[in-house]
Amino acid sequence: MESKQMWGTRTGFILAAIGSAIGLGNIWRFPYMAYENGGAAFLIPYFFALITAGIPILILEFYIGHRMRTSVPSAFEKLGKFGWLGWWQIVISFVVSTYYSVIIAWALLYSFFAVTKSWGSQPEDYLMNDFLGITNTETWSSNFLGGFQWHILIALAVVWGLAFIILHGGVRKGIERANKIFMPMLFAIILLILFRSVTLEGAAVGLNALFSPEWGQILNSSTWISAYTQIFFSLGIGLGAMITYASYLPKKSDITNNAFMTALANCGFSLLAGISVFGALGFIAQQKGMPLDEVATGGVILAFSVFPEIINAMPMGNIIGVLFFVSLLFAGISSLVSMAEPFISALGDKFNIKRKHAVNWTLGSTALISILFATGSGLHLLDSIDRSVAVLSLSITGLMMVVMMSWKLRLIPTARHYVNEVSDFSLGRWWSVCLVVLTPLVLGYNAIMTLIGDIQHNYEGYPNSLIYTSWIVAIAILFVALCFHFMKRSEAK
Ligand code: PHE
Hints:
The protein is mostly helical.
């Protein structure tokens, strides 16, 4: 029997939880989402979602991990025979890690490109044609995947190699140690970028655009759905990462305080990233003499096309460029290991295999699948799977967890009592009200609206084949999760 994995220090745990939370989502998703959904006005639904759903669910997940001290499926099974939901959450997390790793691989390559600005004077063309070798969706039938992009494959191998080293080190010597290095550096880097960005000419234009409130947007249900989705993905709740990390806490550990620190550091970082990104966007808009909304964007295009343009135009841009891509790399790797850990922990626990082997199986299979995204169709696949798997399934598994815990098992009062015993400050009744009434209603409404929206319009005009692919993947994930669930059942008999 291997000795139980455990964090070395409280700071180690908090840094690891922050490392899981802060990821690509904070840097390239939050700023544009805030801008698109009403600027400063977006902060109202965002903080509402944080306080009524994000933090309460984070506390609930820390509770489940700390109290059950085992992997997600076992914890759910012991709480009330819903191990399948645990498997579902961690299989989703597994799938997210297959493409998340590819984006980190791009960031790795771009941190080298930034030194000489080797993307040239047309970064968008470079990205689409040379770098990604993107396939034309019209001619898909003839060459579906469009061939491998070898440079991406090599970078991907390096990313998985790093994750392999960290996870093989174990919880204390691997994950904790890595986060103790990555997190302080990440905060230092973002502050440097922020300073450079707000002192650029035109930065004020970008910041004004980001922060000027459009109050009307608050009345749109889509603004609220975006706020909740962002909080869920950003805090990494509903995917088993936080439950798993909390299962390695020693018995005497504060829960409430740790959850607040994690959530606040994460949202603070998002705001810093928002200011950095929009300051820089204001600068490039002014340089090009364009209105801001023509340069403002998020996701892949922001990081790998607009940012390179900004770097081209900025004095000493290569230094900021390297820092920017390295920040994506650090933020990404620390999230990536937290996506793999729940599966590793479950394999070890449910199939009784050594951690070493569980790491090999988990990373080996995710790495193998991730190769699909290093092809000419990688970006198309990534977008559609991200949409259906991460965005849609995530809120559903989160909703199910809350409903199971509060309506079916009625565990919230017991949980509150337990959390208050171990924590510095006590949770009031608001916590129960949020979990029992408010969050299930809002999440249920969101899930239905998202589903209807999905059926009504094609996501970003993608061909039907891709929409079907993503649904098939979503269903396959559920199926795989059930297989794991029943495999364990038959073993137990
Ligand atoms: N929170 C991470 C981000 O914002 C992503 C993540 C999701 C990490 C789920 C762990 C689990 O990028």
